[in-house]
Amino acid sequence: MRVGVDVFAAERFYNGDSRGVLELAALADRAGVHLLTTSDHLGFTRRSHADRVRDFAFPFDLEQSWPEPLSVLSAVAAVTERIELGAYVLVATLRPAVLLAKQIATLDALSGGRTRIGMGVGWQEAEYDAAGLPFQGRFGRLEETVAACRELWESDAPSFSGRDFAFDDFHSLPRPVQSRVPVVFGLGASQRNFDRIARVADGWAVTPADLPELAESVTRLRQTFADHGRDPASAEVQVLLPTRTDAAGAPDYDAMRADAARAASGGADTVILRASALPIDSTDLPEAIDWLQALRSGLA
Questions:
Q1: Measured between alpha carbons, how far is 11 from 9 in angstroms, rounded to an integer?
Q2: What are phi and psi of 76, to 5 degrees?
Q3: Does the keyword Iron apply (predicted)?
C-alpha cells in the first residue's frame, strides 16, 4: 500500500503562511511518504460557491486560498528528494495543452522524475467563463489535452490535430525525465470515463461519491484496461481518505485505518490523508505522518 499526504490548506498550521507547506512537505519526505498532492481551483463566483456548499456540503470557505498547484509542487521539489508530486486533482482543461505540457515537463525535470499528476475537468461553469473557455466538451478536451501532452513529451517530431488545438513539428523543451509521466483522472465512475482513462491515462483518483461501490468500480476499470490491450494491474487507484473524529472531537485514527483497509480490499493501491482536514495543530503533524507510515506497513 502506498500512502500520500495532501497539503492543500496546510498553511493553517503555520499562521496562514503558505511557505509552511514546504515544511510539511519536507517532513513527509523524510518520513518516506510516497506521494504529496494538493488541490486546484482558479476561483469561484459567490453564487456558484454557495450552490456547491448547499448542494454538496463543499467544505471550504469562499475566502480559502487556493495556490496554483504546479507552482506549489515546483517549490516542494526544491525542498524534497524522494516524495512523488501530484494533484488531487488539477482542473487541466482550464490550461492550454501546450502550456500544461511545458509546466509538467519542467516540474518533472526539476524534481528528477517525481511527477504523478491527477487531472480532472472541475464542476464550476463560472470558472470556465472567467477563463474564457467553453464548459461544454470539457471531458473530450481533457482526453485530447493528455494526448497532446504525451506527444510533446515523447515524440521526436511532435504533431497533433484535435478538435480544439493543433500543432505540427512543435518542439517544446525540457522533456520529462520519465519516459511516461503517470496521469490519473479524477472522474466519476462510469464506463465512458473508464474508457477515457484506459485510452490516455494511467489510473483513477476516486471521487468521494464513488467510495461505496469502490470494489465493483475497480473491477470494471481493470477490465476496461484489458479491453484496451493494457495490463489491468497497471491501473493505479488513489483514494483520499475521509476524515474521522471521535466523541471528543479528536482524530479517530482507528476509524481512518479501517477506511484505508476497506479501500485497499476494494482495489486501491494509494491512500491519501489531507492533513488540513484533521482537527489538529502544527505540533500534532509528526504524529499524523507517523500514523501514515504505520498505515503503509500495516496494509502492505
A1: 5
A2: -60, -35
A3: no
Query: Which grid coordinates are listed for 81?
Result: 528528494
Average pLDDT value for residue range 25-51: 97
Q: What class has domain 2-298? A: alpha beta
pLDDT in tens, 112-165: 999 999 999 999 999 999 999 999 999 999 999 999 999 999 999 999 999 989
Residue among 115, 113, 119 at smallest CA distance from 86: 115
Contact in structure between 43 and 119 (CB atoms under 8 Å):
no
CB atoms within 10 A of CB 191: 11
Query: pTM above 0.70?
Result: yes
- Residues in the chain, total: 300
Q: Are 140 and 106 in contact (CB under 8 A)?
A: no
Q: Which of the four pLDDT bands, split at 50, 70 and 90, describes residue 300?
A: low
